[in-house]
Amino acid sequence: MNILILYDTVFGNTKKIAESIADGFSAAKAKVRLIQANEAEPRDIADADLLVVGSPTRAFRPTAATMKALKDPLCTFTGKKFAAFDTRIDPEEIKSAFFRKIVTGFGCAADAIEKTLLKRGAVKIAEGHPFIVTGDQGSVLRKRETEIAFDWARTLLANAGSR
Ligand SMILES: Cc1cc2nc3c(=O)[nH]c(=O)nc-3n(C[C@H](O)[C@H](O)[C@H](O)COP(=O)(O)O)c2cc1C
Fold it and tell me: Tell me, what CATH number does 44's domain have?
């Protein structure tokens, strides 16, 4: 199975998660490639049996580069197995109740990734996975998130095999 992890990042945290997921796939002897969203070519998507897409959540959405790659009319997603992940802040860490409500209510990157890929005929094999960043503007990954990402790869492999 050819696995493509398509990710974007601004501060580097989503890249670290993408790399940990890739390490998890490699440890299970699966063939995996990592590509940043702005470098993805239609052929990369075509060659993938399983697509794992991740983006930082910025203003409730994935990055523009992520959405551009997913909406590329030259790419075909019909029947393609996929799972989405994102990085985001933990609403519990937001002091203002007002902003907490906005952040929880307006959605996250993984939701928009899923919606876009489902609309294009791709097949979701797992629920979108959040990975939490903390600190000023979400600058540091929460402890253990990379280990959770590593383990998630095994779940994805099992789901991809059974669907
Ligand atoms: C301009 C900006 C907007 C952000 N908007 C959100 C948001 O709507 N929801 C959220 O959970 N986190 C938000 N964050 C925190 C980001 O999700 C966090 O910086 C990101 O996950 C870090 O990933 P990266 O290191 O790969 O860029 C925002 C951060 C910035 C700088």
Answer: 3.40.50.360
